[in-house]
Amino acid sequence: MPIIINLDVMMARRKMSLNELSERINLTLSNISNLKTGKAKAIRFSTLDAICKALDCQPGDILEFRE
Asked: Per residue, what are the HEC states of 1-67?
């Protein structure tokens, strides 16, 4: 899949755990884990918005396109 999700990188930069992010954005641990490991096939804009607010970043910090 050419879209890479760098959620783990941003979480590490902000020193935020999976549990803390889950609580802040009100999303289950399994859903965040799927995003973090790249197993997710889609992401809602509302979820991306909540993640960006919680991690104080831009969508481009989380999503990357690679050929």
From this structure: CCEEECHHHHHHHCCCCHHHHHHHHCCCHHHHHHHHHCCCCCCCHHHHHHHHHHHCCCHHHHEEECC
